[in-house]
Design brief:
This protein has 266 residues and is of the alpha/beta class. It folds into 2 domains: 126 residues, Rossmann fold (3-Layer(aba) Sandwich), CATH 3.40.50.10090; 127 residues, Rossmann fold (3-Layer(aba) Sandwich). The strands form 2 sheets. The chain has a 6-stranded mixed β-sheet with strand order 3-8-7-4-5-6. Strands 2-1-9-10-11 form a 5-stranded parallel β-sheet, with helices on both faces. It is elongated.
Length: 266
């Protein structure tokens, strides 16, 4: 009988809902044990009236950029309330394939996104965003997100309207069961998909288990997150080639033997 790719691995998934739950399903389908601890949750913006007012200004925009799947989920109810259909003159773009899929599911089928590098740099490298004199671009994003995209678009001549659709918060979760798994050295690897998520993980697990947490191999989705993880003290950090579930699973399968050897040494 062929051993499944992730057989005998206990993997802690910190990716938030709903994508984190889907990733857990895929891990289980490949023989692994997935433990879902979403270290990031989302709340409405503090100034919801400003958010709605910004959505009403979309008729003035040439481009509407969604920064993440959550930007789609958080803005969709207001978008549909204020605009039964977006004007044909408004072009849509997003950072990566996950956000593109969220837009497709919402019925927005014509979306520009970078095919290789799923981040702000990838979007900024596209020909459509090189010369932007007097172009009006709205960006739907979260509070306190990276501003590189906005600043670069402005430097290239665009007039940018940032639309804050959500806030990132630490979820209210009974953490003790997860702390026990960490204490018992049950967790073989951790998946972290954002800077906020990895910082929240260290806070949620607490100081007493900090050293043990840092010893667990960490799978991340970008060099930027790797840099932060290294700064926080994680010892083993592996980077998936993009943010997709498939890339994360591929990396875990590649590292399975190494993880099993680490498990045997405990």
């Amino acid at each position: 009988m062929k051993i499944k790719k992730l057989h005998d691995l206990n993997i802690l998934v910190t990716r938030p809902y709903p994508s984190g739950a889907k990733l857990c399903e895929l891990i289980k389908s490949q023989g692994g044990c997935a433990i879902h601890l979403p270290t990031l949750a989302f709340a409405p913006p503090k100034n919801s009236s400003k958010f709605i007012a910004s959505i009403r200004k979309l008729s003035q925009q040439n481009w509407l950029i969604f920064i993440s799947p959550q930007a789609v989920y958080a803005s969709l109810p207001v978008l549909r309330q204020e605009w039964r259909a977006l004007l044909p003159s408004i072009k849509l773009a997003c950072i990566g394939i996950g956000t593109m899929k969220a837009l497709h599911q919402a019925g927005y089928l014509h979306v520009l996104y970078p095919k290789k590098k799923w981040n702000s740099e990838g979007l900024l490298a596209l020909p459509e965003f090189q010369s932007l004199n007097k172009q009006k671009i709205a960006i739907i994003r979260g509070e306190k997100g990276r501003d590189q995209l906005e600043q670069t678009l402005k430097k290239r001549g665009a007039r940018v309207l940032p639309i804050i659709a959500y806030r990132r918060i630490i979820p209210e979760i009974e953490i003790h069961p997860y702390q026990m798994l960490l204490k018992q050295q049950t967790i073989d690897s951790i998946i972290a998909t954002s800077n906020n998520g990895i910082v929240n993980l260290t806070k949620m697990m607490g100081k007493a288990l900090h050293t043990r947490l840092l010893d667990i191999p960490l799978v991340v989705i970008s060099e930027r997150i790797k840099e932060l993880a290294h700064h926080l003290g994680f010892q083993t950090i592996w980077v998936a080639h993009n943010a997709s579930h498939e890339a994360i699973l591929e990396l875990l399968a590649k590292k399975r033997n190494e993880l099993c050897q680490m498990k045997m040494k405990l």
